[in-house]
Amino acid sequence: MTGVLINDFLLTLMVITAIGAISVRSLLAASMLLAIYSLLIALVWVDLQAVDVAFTEAAVGAGISTVLLIGTLVFVDKWERVKPRLHWPALGVVLITGAVLIYGTLDMPHFGDPQAPVHQHVAPRYIEDSLRETRVPNMVTAVLASYRGYDTLFETVVIYTAGMSLVLLLRARRHPGSKGERTL
Amino acid sequence: MEFTALYNYWVYVALMMIGFYAVIAKTNLVKKVIGLGLFQTAVFLLYISMAFVTDATAPVVWEQAGRYVNPLPHVLILTAIVVSVSTMAVALALVIRIGRAYGSIESDEIRDDDPDHR
Amino acid sequence: MREQVILRVITKLLTPFILMFGLYVIMHGEISPGGGFQGGVILAAAFILYSLVFGVHASRAVLSRRVTDALAGGGALIYAGVGTVTMALGGEFLDYNMLIPADAPAGQALGITLVEIGVGITVAAVMITIFNELSEHG
């Protein structure tokens, strides 16, 4: 019960931080709010027993992506030009979409329900057999690298592709005329 | 208990809509990237909330554990988080290039700059 | 930040421990929370901290552009290579049971370790590349 209360409190803080992150004019402040948001969501993951995900979120979301956002702000304007004001058509679209999604959640199994359909198929097999089949106590690692090895292989390839796209976007311009590198 | 039964899912909708609003309404490209980030974490929240089971422990084998939470959504989201930061880096690199080319990262100013749109 | 003595000393002190922790997280991911993705990011964080304090050139002197580019592809190749080896041993792609046919679960554990190392190398190299490219572009 305490866990649920902590969870609800952190989620409420997250919504407030998210609204702050998109409404402040200073992009530096928005980046820092996004870092706070990431730390809050890492705490939510710990509360929901998703320790591996929390670890990743704390390292990636709060660490690397903040560094990247601030690194970008070195090269671009640090302030939003226009004063933020409500964009009514967008607000309408967002509210209607949100209402439809909320209506969809009303049929969902309750939070934490062990009888939810999502826990009935595939997952019990991972939980019962993964230690015997792989001798790896951490089920997340076993599923990640063994049962769903193809998925992880191509996620790795996606990360590699992203790195190479960044190289293509930024590196080629740096040394115009130097040997082996062309300007775009 | 009735109130908290679906609260996680409502928060996921709220966060997703905040991110969606930023993507539609903000003209600043960095703000759009931040909005996309919020949108992504909202999806992560949906998955991890579905994986949760009351009174269960983290999915690492333990003799005294009664129930475990569902490890499968954790795996999907674990890789998605790292991919999301990589794609965000590509988006930010594009923003830097756009800023260099047009001298601005506000989408309406860029549109006014573009001769095809005048 | 060259004149910040405290930052420079602390960074020099911390960097080996961060690197060690990153390696620990990669290798220990089977037993405790962690794995290639988290450990790779922690390894990259050590280099990013070093670049932030001493400049990208100092970090490039340790890991040159050529090396990070090669490692980024090399990690993914290790992953795919494990899959190819299991095919050569007569199994399916990424069927780790074939690595130690006499003891299939041990083969699974070995395959998972190798694959996590590959993921860790790729993630670390790509994160270092992303940071260096973003910060050098100017």
Description of the structure:
The complex is a heterotrimer of chains A (184), B (118) and C (138). Chain A is mainly α and 184 residues long. Chain A has two domains: 1-81; 114-176, no CATH class. Chain A is 69% helix and 0% strand. Chain A is built from seven helices and no strands. Residues 177-184 of chain A have low confidence and may be disordered. The N and C termini of chain B lie far apart (58 Å). By secondary structure, chain C is mostly helical. Chain C is built from five helices and no strands. The mean pLDDT of chain C is 90. Chains A and B meet through α1, α2, α3, α4 and α5 of A and α1, α2 and α3 of B.
By DSSP (H or I, 4+ residues per run), the number of helices of chain B equals 4
- Overall pLDDT of chain A: 88
Which parts of chain B are unreliable, with pLDDT below 50 for 5 consecutive residues or more? none
Alpha-carbon distance between the two ends of chain A: 58 Å
Gyration radius of chain B, to the nearest Å? 20 Å
Would you report the number of β strands of chain A? Answer: 0
Oligomeric status = heterotrimer
Helix content of chain B: 55-70%
Q: By helix and strand content of chain B, what is the structural category?
A: mainly alpha
Largest sheet of chain B: none
Number of helices of chain A: 7
How many whole angstroms does the radius of gyration of chain A measure? Answer: 22 Å
Most extensive protein-chain contact, per-chain counts: A-B, 89 and 82 residues
In what range is the share of β-strand residues of chain B? under 5%
Q: Helix/strand-derived class of chain A?
A: mainly alpha
Helix content of chain A: 55-70%
Shape category of chain B: elongated
Number of strands of chain B: 0
* Low-pLDDT stretches of chain A: 177-184
Name a few traits of the molecule.
heterotrimer; A: 184 residues; 2 domains; 7 helices; disordered C terminus; B: 118 residues; mainly alpha
In short:
The complex is a heterotrimer of chains A (184), B (118) and C (138). Chain A has 184 residues and is mainly α.
